[in-house]
Sequence to fold (445 residues):
Amino acid sequence: MTSKEKSPTRGNNGIEPRVYTRKEHTVSRNDIDYDALKIMYRLIRHGFRAYLVGGGVRDLLLDKKPKDFDIATDATPRKIKNLFRNCRIIGRRFKLAHIFFKDNKIIEVSTFRDASDPVDIEDDSEKTSPPRDNNYGTEQTDACRRDLTINGLFYDLSTFSIIDYVGGMDDLKNKLIRIIGDPRERFIEDPVRMIRAVRHAARSGFTLEDTCESAIKTHHKLILEASQVRVYEEIKKDLCSGSSLKILRLLSSTSILQHLLPELEVNNGELLQEGSFFSRVFENIDVTSAEEEVPITAILASISLFMTAYPDSTVPLHEQYEDKEDIIDHLTSCFVKLAVPRKEKERIEELLSLWHRVLTTPVDKLKKSNLERRRRVDELAYLLRWFNLDNIYDEQLEIALAATEKRKNQARRKGSKSNSGGNASGNKGRNRRGRKRPGQNSGNS
Ligand code: ATP
Ligand code: MG
Fold:
């Protein structure tokens, strides 16, 4: 063992967790991803502890389908790597194991973390600070460094029990979003937790526990100190969550939204009110995102259309722009406080230019225009669908949907010709070093 890889300490610093036996909870092995089970079984067979952690346990207890299954263990990354051939160690400041499976599936296995570990394995300071020794923690420190009590539960496959160091089971039962530890301190340590608390409250219909809510309302400005890249990634997740409208409203009433999307709070927040043009469009967006993965470009473009002086449903939105230049001009004044990456802004610009062109072209001409050859036509179909409130865009939507269908068929034909069967690298959504690309869940972040 090198000096850089000390074993995590066994034991739990004297704090006894509440253990819920199989009869006292609803998590069943059958609902857990088969590969995650295999990983945990192998670790346990080799004498390590291995728990299902975080959102996976929370969602199973809420009877929802988890987005990902993350594992925490007392095995160090090096030992994990020795056990799994399909494993890659990632992270410079804090090392995690990624275990790769078919169909681009990656399961994140993290060694119990200490309270002093960096919040984000790829945070800004990573580039300037030298790699540090990993001092791993105990299962208790690992539970306590997590954000919300409902995210701090462990499912133990060796006993089928839930281990609860943080009171998460009670909070789940009482539908409460509670920060682990002192909310003010935890928000100072990582202001992004304010957004996460609001997300889970809005998404699950839970109540923000009093001290958590008042800490957010008092310290909302802390969000300005968080890494802008992380804030953008979290907001992106919210916008694509299928509960975006509820989240935006709660971000607004807890005073956070003014630091991120102040443009949505103009005129005493009329955009976010029930029945508004914006709300109707975002209800549509949420319906779609609950069913499928939706391109963030189309959602951001939708938001930008409301960042005008005339968010009025009686004037067709496209008529507020003369031409492409006008749209580009408009976009330069959008998202003043949110760090939307330049590349994303370019995609929004392309999409809105196409949208404007389509809506200002007579339908007959549009039918013959080979729309399928245009970039962003897939996103255009989403945009038209969401804004088609009184079926005003029926004709254009039909043409756009036919074009996306044609594109899909062309892509399928190309795919079968090249016989590649998808992403040959098997690294969809990952950069070259195997790290999750921004916007993907960081299971054990
Ligand atoms: P989702 O369903 O949106 O993926 P999640 O809770 O799984 O929800 P992730 O971002 O995947 O969210 O994070 C996995 C786990 O890592 C969380 O459940 C939580 O325990 C921990 N975590 C994530 N972000 C933080 C943070 N900023 N501070 C402390 N713990 C965090
Ligand atoms: Mg997750």
